[in-house]
Each structure stands twice: as C-alpha cells, then as structure tokens.
C-alpha cells in the first residue's frame, strides 16, 4: 500500500511495524522504500483473511494486490470480462485494471489546467445544450453492425448460474428494461450462455453474460486498437483534456441479423433471450467499437480528438479551441444517433 496504509491501519487498530533500509520492487519495476508492515483483515466477496500488508513511500495507486493475495484468497481474474472471483464466494467483483501504460499517461499530462468558474460555466452550458435529457427509445447507429462468425457448427449450451433471490430480482428488472428498449428479445436459439451480474464499485450491478466458450470459437476482426505511444505523444503538450465515456454506447451498436442466435442467454425464472445490440464481453466487440469511434471522429477532428477503446479523448492547448472541438465532437455523435 501507499502511505494511505497508515490511515487504514489506524482505522483497523492494526500495529505498523517499522522497516529500516528495506526496499520492494513494484509491478512497474521501480524500487520503493518500505516504511513498515502491518497485519490487516481483508474482506473480498464476504470472504475474510488476515494478511501482512507492506506500506511503501511512493506508489501510483492506493493499493496493489500481489501474488500472496491471489494465493491466500485463491483468487481468479478473468481479463476479458474484467472480473475477479475468490474461493468460497459466488460474487463476481468488477475490476478496473491498472497498467504501467496508464501510469505513464498520468505522469505525462502534467500541464493540465484546472478550469476557473467562467470556464466551468461555459463547459456546462455546452453540455446542457448539446446533450439533451433522453426521453425516448435508445438510439441505434446506422454506421456499422457487429457480426459474430464462429468456427463451431455445434451449438454451445450452458446452464445458468444459481444466484440469490436479491440478485435474481435485479437481473429480472434489467431484462425487463432491455426488452422495453429493444436491446434484447425472446429467443428460440440452440445456443445458450449464462448471465453474470457483476457488482460495480457503486454497489449497483452490471448485466453481463459469460461468453468465454462462445469467444473461444469466434473469429476476431484484425482491426487495430490505437497505439499507446501515439496517445502519449498527443498528451505530452496538453493543457485542456476532456474524456467522453462511451461505454454505454455498446448497446447502440446493432448486431448483424445472422448473429442474434449466438448471443442467447438464459435468465433463471424468465427463459431464453438474445441480443439485438452488441453486448459486453463478446469477442471482437472492442474492435468493432474502435472502428465505429474512428469513423465518428473522422479526419476533421482527428488531430484534436481520438478514441481509445470506449473513451473519446479531446486534447488542445487553449480553452476556446477546446470548447469548440468538444462541441463538434458531441455533435458528430448526435448525427450518428449516439447521443441518447
């Protein structure tokens, strides 16, 4: 842990044992001075274990989980779905994965300016004007369709995962909402994958489907994701940066009609459904979304705005230009029916 570990130890009434002339190496390869160690009880998914926590001088993140954590909790990470499970718990925990590249982004963008009151008011006015409150059905872009091509002719059928009554109620609620929005429909497919309700940091649940077996037999597009070094070069001289989180727009990308059946999933107590829009966790989804975002931005905005996975990043050195390009970027999304 970072120095924040001292505060955590105090709250937990844990005694910190000072360390002298001790050094640890972090995941990025940097040596860090060890300030002390403390035994703390850690709870993940309702499972508790007592572990020895190391506190270091400087750390990019409040806490990093090491090999000892994964061994103690018998934890398994599913990188494609960004979830973690621990032995003794059925709960799927949502992860936000940090990487050395992400650390570099934070270190590079040192010239980013805070907005004053007038600038903040101008930005809020732009957003209120450009992004109206959605009061109709979810939009659907006509620029692309995601297509699933499988190697296997034999349908994959999996039983649904058992869940608690509380989670099942939340699952049913989200299914009814997606039916009303035209995102899913009832299915008679021979394919079936289980639903996974992933708990987010705010306590709410994200509706996901475990498509690992389907993904294993899916052909994936070779469309390239943007290179992180190129992104870092654009951020180097940035003074104003805006990021637009586009992750909710997955459900505004239609599926190709011949792909519906592959996405079928079973909901305990409700039956079989299939997606009409692109779901999370599907192989090839990020490449389709990257291609869509690149087309939305286009060559006119590309010098100032670029996409990376499900984020649009707008970078300029003056606030007036930044405001203009942010408005143009939002308008480009509205024209492609990606503004709801």
TrEMBL record:
<feature type="domain" description="Reverse transcriptase">
    <location>
        <begin position="179"/>
        <end position="340"/>
    </location>
</feature>
<protein>
    <recommendedName>
        <fullName>Reverse transcriptase domain-containing protein</fullName>
    </recommendedName>
</protein>
<dbReference type="InterPro" id="IPR000477">
    <property type="entry name" value="RT_dom"/>
</dbReference>
<dbReference type="InterPro" id="IPR043128">
    <property type="entry name" value="Rev_trsase/Diguanyl_cyclase"/>
</dbReference>
<dbReference type="InterPro" id="IPR021109">
    <property type="entry name" value="Peptidase_aspartic_dom_sf"/>
</dbReference>
<dbReference type="InterPro" id="IPR053134">
    <property type="entry name" value="RNA-dir_DNA_polymerase"/>
</dbReference>
<dbReference type="Pfam" id="PF00078">
    <property type="entry name" value="RVT_1"/>
</dbReference>
<dbReference type="GO" id="GO:0071897">
    <property type="term" value="P:DNA biosynthetic process"/>
</dbReference>
<dbReference type="InterPro" id="IPR043502">
    <property type="entry name" value="DNA/RNA_pol_sf"/>
</dbReference>
